[in-house]
Amino acid sequence: MLEALVAAARAARSRAYAPYSRFPVGAAILTAEGAIITGANIENASSGMTVCAERVAVMTAIHAGFRSFQKIALVADCDPPVSPCGACRQVLWELAGSIEVIMSNLENSSSIKPLQELYPYPFGTSLRTENPVNEIELSDNESWRIPVLFHPVGYLSNDYDDPDQIPSNYKELLSRVVIDPEYEEGLYRIENEERIHLIAYLHRAKGYTLKEKRSGRGNEVYGVFACRAPLRPNAIAQTTVDLIDRHKNILTVKGADLINGTPILDLKTVMPLK
Ligand code: THU
Fold it and tell me: Which ligand 1 atom minimizes the distance to the CA of 21?
């Protein structure tokens, strides 16, 4: 899990907004449930407004509904590895408690310390095992409106980097589904399946129309929920593919109409027709 967490922090670093310091930092916090939520530093011309990667990660996680945390990883390009600033230590202490802090760099050298050791005399909170954010009341009447965060379990790999390049005979197209080694055990017995559903996120799809002429449906007008168009309010793809082969964490599949690098959110078996 440590490796996956550091890898997520390293990837998150690419979403930093750090034009002033040119020092992008990525953070990834591991929740008690095993979810990984990431953050990166977001700067501002008014320098005091800058928010560090750690705070973006922990606050995103709190707002997504997580209340309990195990570890946080940080990655920046420096040696020795990046260490959290005092403000982040205070915030992490209150929102995440005494978690383990993994400080790492691009060379993968890292040091691990409990937050308690990095921040021994916090303001306002005593050493407690109960996290105060557990006391947040959750009202559920409109909670279905809250955006949902997913953590891809792998990605699709083939030769097509652009949606326009996908050949029309994609049903014959072989692709690989590379599952994060962290989740490899979850593939146990998948090779018994002839076909599987891939649930993917169409990361290049931007915008949508609710009602439009649909080229895939004889150029007639259909609602977005009455067709399979990629431009939808949630750019989720569901594709049924033939499972050709599995080697460890890598599946070879036939028939995916997805581009290289597409994040895979889930794999599911196909219900037998009976
Ligand atoms: N920074 C972080 O995001 N996390 C740390 O642990 C150290 C510092 C950011 C804040 C600012 O955007 C830049 O690094 C340094 O000026």
Answer: 16
